[in-house]
Amino acid sequence: MTKTFVKEFFVSIQGEGPFVGYKQLFIRFCRCNLKCKYCDTEFLASTGAKEYSAQELFDVVSALDLTGLHSISLTGGEPLLETEFLKEFLPLARGLGRIYLETNATLPEQFEEIKDLVDIVSADIKLESAAGVKGCRHDAFFAACTGKNLFAKIVFDNSITDEEIAATAALAKKYDFELVLSPVMLGDKMSVTTEFISAVLDKYLKHYDRVRVIPQVHKFIGVE
After folding, report:
1. Domain containing 159 — which CATH number?
2. How far apart are CA 121 and CA 99, in angstroms?
3. Number of structural domains, the chain?
4. pTM tops 0.85, yes or no
5. Which residues form the domain of 190?
6. Residue pLDDT, tens place only, 108-120
7. 58 DSSP assignment
8. How far apart are CA 200 and CA 194, in angstroms?
């Protein structure tokens, strides 16, 4: 029996990406293999997380009001660091709703281990300009996602470069998935102007047409 730390779980409205507005059960795991400079969550177990077995977590989340639930969002942190736990938990949880994996798209081997238990993949493409992390290799992850319902989010600010735009558009085109552009938020305000967002979108559309802008809607409407 595998146990892992869960920071929190709650039912709310998805505020990012093409599934924005749907009712989801969010399960937030603690660990992460990256440290993005715009991350706004403290994940350490010492800040109030609780340790669960797969059955224990299933028992507490299935007691919530899940009426009309669209999906279960595995978020964090980086859920793919909890692969052994997810192998036990996801067969239980799939009866509650679709499995929606939110991931930084850097752990393809771990994804392969639970691929068949996941319905939707929401992947982040990390830009060095915005995230402040270097050397993220996403290509192998997207190759592993063949056949899955996949889209990718790109969080950006006014330091995004033309080279980053061209490279990430080429990656999406290679693996044929939709790109969702999301400006860095400062509280409930966008960090860049509407005019800048439009200019970035136009630059992307010169390379690839499956691109749209969706800010973090949950921050505008005041939900978790």
Report:
1. 3.20.20.70
2. 9
3. 1
4. yes
5. 3-221
6. 999 999 999 999 9
7. H
8. 10
